[in-house]
Amino acid sequence: MVSICSLIPKLNFGPDFRYYRRGMFNSAESTNREGLNYASLTKSTDFSWTLDNLIYYNRTIGKHDFGFTFLQTATKYEYEANNMSGEGIPLESSLWNAFKSLSSLKSWESSLTEKQLLSYMARMNYTYKGRYMLTASVRRDGASQLADGHKWATFPSVALGWRIDQEEFLKEISWISQLKLRLGYGVTGNSAITPYQTKGGISSLYYPFGPNPTQGYIAYENEAGITNTLANQNLGWEKTAQWNIGVDFNFFNGRINGIVDVYTSKTTDLLMAQSIPTLTGYARTYANVGKTKNFGYDLTFNFVPVRTKDFEWNIGVNAAYSRNEIVSLANGKEDDPANGWFIGESTNSIYTYESAGLWKEEDRADMEKFNANGHDFQIGMARPVDQNGDYKIDANNDRTIVGHYDPRWTLGLNTNFTYKGWDLGIQLYGRMGFKYYDSSVWVGGRYNVRDYDYYNENNKNAAHPKPIYDEGGKDAYYNETYLKNGSYLKIRNISLGYTFPNRLLTHTGLSALRMYAQIKNPGYIFSGCKTLDLDTYSNTYNSGFTFGLNLSF
């Protein structure tokens, strides 16, 4: 029996440092300076690092292969910012470097954000005869931004693999190059919240104490621009336990290959911002609010329909389906309309009034019944659906779930053609089964001049309510008409290249030369949105051309 072993230590360190400095000076003669020179100075540093200590131990005993990995990792993030501004700078040549000469500053602020993560992990890989595989691991993580007593959590996982193609009953089937079955279970954690959410905010206040006022601190008062957040000293890890089963296959020497994964998961103690009654003195808090479950599958297929001496055509397709559902909330089995959370529905459900289009002339009789109950609807305004049929629109009885923001499907397609030295590649990407708000249709949101289909006396079959922006938002339900189907399929990239044959590079000193041209984001195959790029949720659609050379010496 042969025994082989190896012990390999490894150390990884990755720092990341960023420095930002911005000075601004406005002369006394600038617009709205009121005869005073103005200057401001902002500085910030962003520093993070990760340190990994690793030990690998491998041993082979006959047909048994063992691999052990031990990891200790530490991560720290620190962001520090300072800014100040002042008026009355004596000399323009001083710019933002003369704040000391001022009797007082116009504004000043400093901030510091820190967080750390400390982790330990042990993993074992075991293989028998190259066909039966077991992987087991345990990880323990501590996150500084969670509450005392809840910073640490343990996350186990186990996975099994079976190379079916190595079994005797399949070895004689020549067209099966690989066939592997996988089964896995694991628990992962999420601590991705802003630091100090367990502490809450404070503001200073002066109290009369003796002959002089004394400074003290209290929870944030209602101040403009500040959202009051209630401290949560029980905030802990969000945990997700997931089962998955998968198949890896490769047929006909790579002409057909792919991966199929099906998974189901349950997440407990979700970390989410939660609205709370304002009578508490706060508007919201971060909390571990409940449980969700998720089901999905990932499919990846690669085909080579044509392969000859000079020509090859490859197709790659991937598709992912995912649906999450709220199982329970912190308050038990009750729905939470204030946060848009409902048992049995998606965490990102859209809870609002359902749109019935616009009020039209033929709807006048019904419209008058609503107006008799205190509404002020007009022809051309948005018409919400009266869910309970009482000719009143109110939040308690007429709001409903009209969709969700999360895509059900994510799709990708890559196809490549090669002929001798030429290559052509096309990449498509899409998401299906979700809705979005087209805010650009809002009268105050027209950043680019577009021709919108608004209602007016000459356009009574319009898609959008009549523009009454200067009436103080009188149409309270116009938002619902801007909710649209977000499904799309876009062309992300088209590339064309040529690789020069080696015989042409003999006397050039090059070992390889390829020239190429790319078109980025040339357009959509289809989209329900004409005003936003739903891939990036931007109102600008960035297309571009790239020309380049790849050289190897």
TrEMBL record:
InterPro entries: Beta-barrel_TonB_sf, TonB-dep_OMP_SusC/RagA, TonB-dep_rcpt-like. Keywords: Cell outer membrane, Membrane, Transmembrane, Transmembrane beta strand, Transport. It is found in: Cell outer membrane. It is a multi-pass membrane protein. It comes from the Bacteria. GO terms for cellular component: cell outer membrane. Belongs to the TonB-dependent receptor family. NCBIfam families: OMP_RagA_SusC. This is SusC/RagA family TonB-linked outer membrane protein.
